[in-house]
Structures are given as C-alpha cells and as structure tokens.
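Annex B. Sample input.
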Amino acid sequence: MGTNGSTMLKPLRQGLPPLDPTAVSEAASCALPARYEAVREARQFTRATLERWDVGERSEDIALVVSELVTNALRHALPGEAADTDEDDCPGPNSSPVRLHLMHWTGRLVCAVRDPSHGTPVPRESDDFSAESGRGLFLVDSFADGWGWHPLAGALSGKMVWALFLLPPAEPAD
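Annex B, continued. Sample output.
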C-alpha cells in the first residue's frame, strides 16, 4: 500500500521558520549556470563553505539536499532548453536564473535555492524506489529537519525552496 505524500505537502507553502537575525554567524551564496553541471558546482561550493564553517556531521546531508534542490530547479523551473545553455562558470547575481543561498545561525543552517518558476514544488507519488528520478523532495524531506517554499516578491520573480538543518552544539574547545 503506497503513501499519498500528503504528510510531505504540509510544509510546502511556509516561509522560512522564525530565526533570530542577531544570531546569524555566516551566509554565502552562489549564482549557478543553467546547465546540469551546476549540481556538481553547487555541491562543491556547499562542501567548501560548510568546511569553513565547521558544520560537522550534517555536512553530507546538507550537500545531498542542495544537490536535490538544484536538480529540481534545473529540471522543473527552467524553460525546456535552458539547462543546456553555455554560460560562465559563476555568472553574476542577476544573469543566472538559479541561485544557491547558505545561511548559518547558531544551532541551525538553511540552504535555499531561488529559481524563476512560480510553480509549486510537488512530490511525485511513486512506489518505485528503484526509479532513477522523482525522489528529490522525498530525499529532502528525509534528510532535512524541515523544508518549504515561498514565492518571491518585488524585483525578484519566481520562488525560493529551502531546507532547514538543526546542528548539534559545537564541541567545547580544550
């Protein structure tokens, strides 16, 4: 008997959970080219950033979720041939349709991917766990402590899909 995915739909239209802006310790972002190599670039950027921030044991979970969010943005949020275009490796912030944001607060980290689509992220319903694709939001839901999306307003159009990770307290220095 398969699940209908309704439990995954609950967080979809929420904005970011309340976070104390005074507790922000680090933030980083990178514009991503509109091609599938951007997934690898996003993962490398994420790993390097998390290593600098000394995030610890959640790093691989976060890198996996970033890969899934960027893949979804490229696959579902860009016009048909956009994912095959040739652009600079790290285009300027206004020239790229997809942008990755990493924000680190004390005890939590949010990764968010901005894309130009207004479409709602919808998990695919499938009982075929051997399928090559279609499990992205299921993986995000499984590895993140929370996730959601919200439409962008003002000069930016599209949406932001985010995932929240609770981080263990830092080890005290000896």
